[in-house]
């Protein structure tokens, strides 16, 4: 069952209780504060629901600053060190600059921790990977 657990004009988070994962959908341009608030909320939900898998859809998200990239990467690394590793499926942005931005974040995280992170063309492909081993 899917339940919307957080929604704003730029971010929608759905908790899939059947497979216990978050579907995170970023939309359009977000200010630095909106982005950071969203990231903080995601990690709070992950702790609250013991989430170990996410699908992040950023096909319609726009470029974020280098500082915000570093913020997201740092929180991801800190989360995994303090709580648990996360299996992350990513559906990359259509925007070439935003795509480059997300790949930089992932490269930063990959250097600092072992997380399962993969890029997928669409939700269905990502969902199949998330469900592996269940």
List strands and helices in order, with pairings.
Blueprint: E1 2-7, E2 11-16, E3 21-28, H1 32-49, E4 53-61, H2 66-82, E5 87-91, H3 96-112, E6 116-119, H4 123-131
Parallel strand pairs: 3-4, 4-5, 5-6
Antiparallel strand pairs: 1-2, 2-3
What's this model, at a glance?
This protein has four helices and six strands. It has 134 residues and is an alpha/beta fold.
Note down, in words, how this protein is organized.
There is one protein chain. The protein is of the alpha/beta class and 134 residues long. The chain has a single domain, classed as 2-Layer Sandwich (Transcription Regulator spoIIAA). Helices cover 46% and strands 28% of the residues. The protein is built from 4 helices and 6 strands; from the N terminus they run βββαβαβαβα. The chain has helices at residues 32-49, 66-82, 96-112, 123-131; strands at 2-7, 11-16, 21-28, 53-61, 87-91, 116-119. Strands 1-2-3-4-5-6 form a 6-stranded mixed sheet, sandwiched between helices. β2 and β3 form a beta hairpin. α2 (66-82) packs parallel to α3 (96-112). The longest helix has 18 residues, at 32-49. 30% of the residues are buried. The mean pLDDT is 88.
């Amino acid at each position: 069952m899917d339940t919307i657990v957080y929604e704003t004009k730029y971010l929608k988070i759905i908790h899939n209780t059947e497979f216990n994962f978050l579907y995170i959908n970023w939309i359009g341009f977000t200010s630095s504060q909106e982005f950071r608030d969203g990231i903080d909320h995601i990690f709070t939900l992950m702790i609250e629901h013991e989430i170990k898998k996410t699908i992040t859809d950023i096909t319609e998200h726009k470029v974020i600053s280098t500082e915000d990239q570093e913020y997201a990467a740092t929180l991801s690394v800190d989360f995994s060190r303090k709580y648990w590793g996360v299996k992350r499926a990513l559906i990359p942005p259509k925007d070439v600059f935003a795509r480059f931005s997300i790949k930089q974040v992932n490269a930063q995280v990959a250097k600092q921790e072992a997380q399962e992170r993969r890029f997928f063309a669409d939700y269905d492909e990502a969902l199949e990977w998330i469900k592996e081993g269940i």
